[in-house]
Structures are given as C-alpha cells and as structure tokens.
Amino acid sequence: MNISVLLLTLNEEANLPACLSAVAWSDDIVVLDSYSSDNTVPLAEHLGARVYQRRFDSFAGQRNHALEAIDFKNNWILHLDADEIVTSELHAEMLCVIGDARYDAYRIPSKMMLFGKWLRYSGLYPSYQVRLGHRARFRFKQVGHGQREDIPAERVGTLSEPYLHYSFSKGLSEWFDKHNRYSSDEARTNLSRFTTHEPMDWAGLLSTEGVRRRRALKDLSGRLPFRPLLRFLYMYILRRGFLDGRAGLTYCSLLAIYEFMIVLKLRELREQAAESDRPAAAPEKS
Q1: In what helix (H) or strand (E) does residue 156 lie, and over which residues does it extend?
Q2: Where is the domain boundary, 110, 134, 165?
Q3: Same domain for 150 and 181?
Q4: What letters, b where the CB count within 10 A reaches 16 and e where it falls short, cover 71-98?
C-alpha cells in the first residue's frame, strides 16, 4: 500500500528539489500550482510530478478541490507545502498506520527550523496539523489564514514522527510578505468572532487534548490586551524560547510583531465598521 502526495505551490522553485526528493518513495506526486511566475511548473514536471493549476482561493479550497477533481493513484494522501521535508522515519510510520481502519486521518507534528536550527522550545513542539488523510473520508475547512480538518475528532489519529518545516527558506522578506497577508485574515476572523459573540471554549484550556487546548489558548489570546508583549513573554520566557539562542530570540520577536500587525488591522476594521454604521449627516440648509 502506497501513499500519494499533494503539494500546493506558488513560486516554489527554490524549495521544490529538496521537498520532492524527500518524497521520492511515492509513486504518485501531484502538484497543484496557483499559476506560478517562476520555473515551478517545468521544474516540478522535470522532477516527475503531475502538475495541475488552479487560481488560489484558500488553502482548504485548494486541497478540497484536488481531492474532488484529481484522480489520485492511492487512497491515502499526504498534504504538504513546498517548504516542508518528510523524514524517512515519518514515511515508515505512515506506512504502518494507513491500514488501521479506526482512523480517517492523522495529525503530524512539525519541527520549525530557523538559521538551520530546530526551534525546540519557541517552535511549540510538538505542534500538530492534520496532513495525512483518506481521500474519500477526509476534507478541510478554512479557519483564519489556514486550514483545519473537517471530520470528527475521534476519527483522527496522531503520529509521533515529525516533518521539518523550513518556514524561512525564502528569507525574512518573504516571511513578512506572507504574514502581512495572514494577519489580515486573522483580523477578519477575529472581528467576525467578536461581532457574532462566538463563545469561548473555556473547558478547552484545561483539556488533555493538545490540539483543542492550543486552539482554546489561541482564541483566548485574541481577547486579551497587550497581545504582542504577552505573546513574546509567553514564548520567550514561559515556553523557554531563550534556550533556542539567537534563533529563539529572533522567532519570538517576529511572533510579537505578527501579533501587533493583527491588533492594528483589527482596530482598523472596527473603526471602518463603526464609521459605516454611523447615520449620514443631514444636509445643511442653505
């Protein structure tokens, strides 16, 4: 039993060789490209991948489109981004679990890498994402700037071996560009949550389920004042990011900047909403 690979790309020629080399064991590598302007498409084809193209709408939209429109060779599909590397240990573990009928998908931990160093503490290891799923029984839903699994939690298993995430492989400028977009999505999500009075999952803060607890903490952080400072202190002091050295200090500082971007954009959205709700001023009498 083999595993297909689905890779989402947009101008990823720099990351493709390493990413595709790490999944060369797959007999079915599919690239869904968002109309790259560099050599991503010819390079992917040269390296043996099947390439399709679709205008990007969201991560969940891209992945769900692929599951529904592309004829994969295998029932189990590993969902990747081009800056992620699958280790041989993770490959072996995936092969061991896909025959287990109890689960329709699996969450996988990732190791965040910066300056060639694993961010053991500030990277919040193990941080999980559901990336391995049965093509007929697994779909995604868009949440904020990313995707989450759209199946019952009891149908999701957990793997122990991680993949490597080189989030800074294109440099800090690209990271800022990407998180500028992400912060806009997060601000809009937060505004929607607050205006619809979506309830806080207080029980989730004490949950023994890591994914639920992490999501509840993220929701709580969105409701607190001084978010950038609190994020830095939490990551650098409480999560012992200082033990990651220069890479840890850099990463914790970047996360605080990202939080500040969300705060500013959320404030802007609220001011715009308040302005649109104000009644128009009556015209002055001549």
Answers
A1: strand 156-158
A2: 165
A3: no
A4: ebebebbbbbbbbbbbeeebbebbeeeb
Dig out the tokens for 133 from the structure.
């799923």
CA terminus-to-terminus distance, the chain: 82
What are the tens digits of pLDDT across the range 87-102? Answer: 999 999 999 999 888 9
- What digits encode the pLDDT tens for the residues 17-57? 999 999 999 999 999 999 999 999 999 999 999 999 999 99
Pair (102, 241) in one structural domain = no
Q: Is 285 within a domain?
A: no
Place of tokens 């992945």: 63
Would you call 191 exposed, middle or buried from its count of C-beta atoms within 10 A (0-12, 13-18, 19+)? middle
pTM to 2 decimals?
0.81
Place of tokens 């029932």: 75
Closest CA to 195 of 88, 268, 138, 269: 269
Q: For residue 239, give both structure tokens.
A: 């999560």
For residues 18 and 69, what is the distance between their CA atoms, to the nearest angstrom?
Answer: 27
Q: Domain containing 65 — which CATH number? A: 3.90.550.10
